[in-house]
Structure formats: structure tokens, C-alpha cells
Amino acid sequence: MNFREEENVVIFEHPLIQHKISLLRDKHTGTNEFRKLVEEIAMLEGYEALSDLPTELQEVDTPIETCMTPMIAGRKLAIVPILRAGLGMVSGLLALVPSAKVGHIGMYRDEETHEPVEYYCKLPNPIEERTICVTDPMLATGGSAVDAIDQIKKHGGKKIKFLCIIAAPEGLERLHKAHPDVQIYVGSLDRQLNKDAYICPGLGDAGDRIFGTK
Ligand code: PRP
Ligand code: URA
């Protein structure tokens, strides 16, 4: 599949995103810097991903006159991180849209099967009307993202975007096939998965690097 020609798949080529991802990959990058970089990349990706957020005209008094001017209406955005690592991207998106509601989906990958196990789901209610940004830095086999989006759709979510920092071709294909209506934003499309379903070259375990565990 040539992802660069697929509708609903955006693979960023912006030098700022590429540079920051290179710093993330470096095993010498410590937790503090890693967290900051994840937040900044989320903000840069979010700027593009939210370019179609609906606006409505509101009346504003400038020092010169009264005008009708576009504003993002209150109940338009929900951010849904996949725990844990997706949490690291939330602050970057909230910096762009501070009024967004935040839901959470808890998933971990079984170490043997690499299949996702859901342990938590709390979403803003109602969610039907909102643009929903699901965040997870890593799209590896795609199992976690597919299941998380299944859940969101079961709760009524319709307009869904998935933002990740690094994707493996296997995961991107699986997610795009399972949810072709979801707009997928990828910071870097890496080479492949290894036998442990880690992304190569990747950046290691994103959750552990963000939270300083292990
Ligand atoms: C990582 C990552 C994704 C998932 C990706 O989470 O943050 O959620 O793996 O893998 P997949 O595409 O093969 O499903 P992990 O299970 O390590 O949990 P954590 O974020 O709590 O560390
Ligand atoms: N989850 C991670 O955190 N890293 C990978 O490379 C794959 C899954």
C-alpha cells in the first residue's frame, strides 16, 4: 500500500517534526526532554490535524468597531489519549484548544500475544457531535488503536482522527483498513516491526520513556 497516496492518511514531512522525532529516538534523551518533545510534536501535528475544526461567527468589539469574526465553538473537540503513552500528547493539543474535553481509554499490550487488553474507558458525554482526536505516540501492530476506535464508535463517536508520532507500516495498514473513515496523522513511518512487535528503528517503549518507568 502506498500510504502517501491514501486518502485519510497524512505522513508529516515538516523538518521541525522530523528533527524532534530524531531527538526522541536517541536513547540518551532523558525523561524530561522526552516529555517536552512529545508535547511539542503533538502541538505541531495538532495544528494541521485541526485545520478543519468547524468555526462559527461571533460578534466581537474591536477598539475600532464591532465585527463578526470566526471562533471555535465550545463543544467541538474531544481528546482521547490511549493510556499510558497517549497522555504525553494531551498537553500539546490542549495548548491549542484549552476548552477541549478529555476522555481516556486504558489499554496495554499482552507481552506474549501482543494483543491489546482494555482496562479503562471514560469518554465525554455526549460525544456524537465532537471531533475526536485519539492520541498514542506509537502505532505498532495497530491492535490498540483499532480497539480504542471500536470503543469510541460504540459510544457514538463519528468524526475521529488518530494522531501518532511513529507508525509501523503493518499497524498503519491495519488501522486504515479497519477504520477507513478515520483520518490518521503520522509523524514518521518507520521500516517494520521486530519479532517482539516493537517498531524499528522506533524509539523503544514510549510509555516507559515518558513516565520514567523500567
Ligand atoms: C504501547 C503504545 C500503544 C501500543 C502500540 O502501549 O503506547 O498503545 O503499545 O502497540 P500496538 O499498535 O501493537 O497495539 P503499551 O501497551 O506499551 O502500554 P503503555 O502505554 O501503558 O506503556
Ligand atoms: N509500543 C511502544 O511503546 N513501542 C513500540 O515500538 C511498540 C509498541
Chart the SSEs and their pairings.
Layout: E1 9-11, H1 15-25, H2 31-49, E2 55-61, E3 66-72, E4 77-83, H3 90-96, E5 101-102, E6 104-109, E7 116-122, E8 131-135, E9 138-139, H4 143-154, E10 159-167, H5 169-178, E11 183-189, E12 192-193, E13 199-200, H6 206-211
Parallel strand pairs: 1-11, 4-5, 4-6, 4-8, 8-10, 9-10, 10-11
Antiparallel strand pairs: 2-3, 6-7, 12-13
Bound molecules: 1-O-pyrophosphono-5-O-phosphono-alpha-D-ribofuranose (PRP) and uracil.
Residues 82-85, 107-109, 114, 116, 136, 138-145, 171, 197, 205-207 line the site of 1-O-pyrophosphono-5-O-phosphono-alpha-D-ribofuranose (PRP).
**Residues in helix, %:** 25-40%
Mean pLDDT: 96
Bound molecules: 1-O-pyrophosphono-5-O-phosphono-alpha-D-ribofuranose, uracil
Supply the number of helical segments: 6
The largest sheet, given as strand count, sense and whether it forms a barrel, is: 9 strands, mixed
Which value, in Å, is the CA radius of gyration? 18 Å
CA-to-CA gap between the ends?
Answer: 36 Å
> How many beta strands in the DSSP annotation?
13
Q: Helix- and strand-based class?
A: alpha/beta
Residue runs with pLDDT of under 50 for 5 or more positions: none
> Looking at the structure, what is the overall shape?
globular
Could you spell the SSE succession in H and E letters? EHHEEEHEEEEEHEHEEEH
Tell me what you see in this structure.
- This protein has 214 residues and is α/β, with parallel strands linked by helices.
- Helices cover 30% and strands 31% of the residues.
- The chain is built from six helices and 13 strands.
- It has helices at 15-25, 31-49, 90-96, 143-154, 169-178, 206-211, and strands at 9-11, 55-61, 66-72, 77-83, 101-102, 104-109, 116-122, 131-135, 138-139, 159-167, 183-189, 192-193, 199-200.
- The strands form three sheets. Strands 1, 4, 5, 6, 7, 8, 9, 10 and 11 form a nine-stranded mixed sheet that branches. A two-stranded antiparallel sheet has the order 2-3.
- α2 packs across α3 (90-96).
- The termini are far apart.
- The model has no long low-confidence stretch (mean pLDDT 96).
- 1-O-pyrophosphono-5-O-phosphono-alpha-D-ribofuranose binds at residues 82-85, 107-109, 114, 116, 136, 138-145, 171, 197, 205-207.
